[in-house]
Amino acid sequence: MFEELKTDRLIIRGLTTADAEAMHAYRSRQEVARFQSWQPQSLEQVIELIKRIKPENFNCDGEWYQVGITLKEDLKLIGDLGIQISSRDSRLAEVGITVHPQYQNKGYGREALSALLNLLLYKLGKHRVTASVDPRNLASMALMKRVGLRQEGHFIKSIWLKDTWVDDVIFAALKNDWPNSTFP
Ligand SMILES: CC(C)(COP(=O)(O)OP(=O)(O)OC[C@H]1O[C@@H](n2cnc3c(N)ncnc32)[C@H](O)[C@@H]1OP(=O)(O)O)[C@@H](O)C(=O)NCCC(=O)NCCS
Q1: Do 175 and 126 touch, CB atoms closer than 8 A?
Q2: From the CB of 139, is ligand 1 less than 6 Å away?
Q3: CATH topology of domain 5-177
């Protein structure tokens, strides 16, 4: 079960089907999906995705688990975070993040991703957390560096995305070298 995370301006919480419309509004946009493999073609696809998320599966192996990024001030859903615990070894996790374009460049991505990294590396004691970024995605490259992830590898044309081979940059953090946290 994912326990709500609070930051200065955000509440990060589990998603329900009541979030589907708000999630569809930003996830279906071309500029949001440009570097991502998932782009819903309908509201129903978002509802299906949310229904597949089982609270008991958080911190379990294999599947992507999405949680919502909401504003404290009006509880509006402005984005989502993805967490995938490795099916190979549950001490390894991968993360992803999406922020509604209207709310980008305001530090919300940094705030949300930092909170998630602290949860995974401190509270849940994961050994290593990674993020995979298309290097053409300058906003995401900047965000990963900003939250303190280390750029560890750059794989050339290693992912098939939208009918072409694209590069993949891997960012990572280890529990043992993660700076002191302010995790509540
Ligand atoms: C990547 C993304 C999550 C960033 O979210 P955000 O809320 O705009 O990020 P922040 O405002 O916290 O910015 C973090 C850093 O990135 C920088 N940044 C943001 N957009 C940028 C851009 N287009 N180009 C260069 N740097 C950028 C910011 O200046 C900031 O650095 P700073 O604190 O040193 O000034 C957002 O752009 C997004 O959702 N993109 C579409 C989905 C996507 O591609 N997700 C990533 C998949 S790996």
Answers
A1: yes
A2: yes
A3: Aminopeptidase (3.40.630)
- CB 95 near ligand 1, within 6 Å: no
33 with 25: CB under 8 angstroms? no
pLDDT (mean) for 131-158: 98
Average pLDDT over residues 16-35: 98
Q: Report which DSSP code applies to 156.
A: E
Mutate-to-test residue for ligand 1 from 34, 64, 80, 99, highest number of ligand atoms within 8 A of CB: 99
Q: What residues does each domain of the chain span?
A: 5-177
Best substitution site from 35, 78, 97, 161 to test ligand 1's pocket, by max atoms within 8 Å of Cβ?
Answer: 97
Confidence check: pLDDT of 184 > 50 = no
Average pLDDT over the chain, rounded to whole? 95
For the Cβ of 39 lying below 6 angstroms from any atom of ligand 1, the answer is no
Q: Which residue has the tokens 């919502």?
A: 68
pLDDT bin (cut points 50, 70, 90) of residue 57 is: confident
- CA–CA gap between residue 96 and residue 98 (Å, rounded): 7
- Give yes or no for residue 105 CB within 6 A of ligand 1: yes
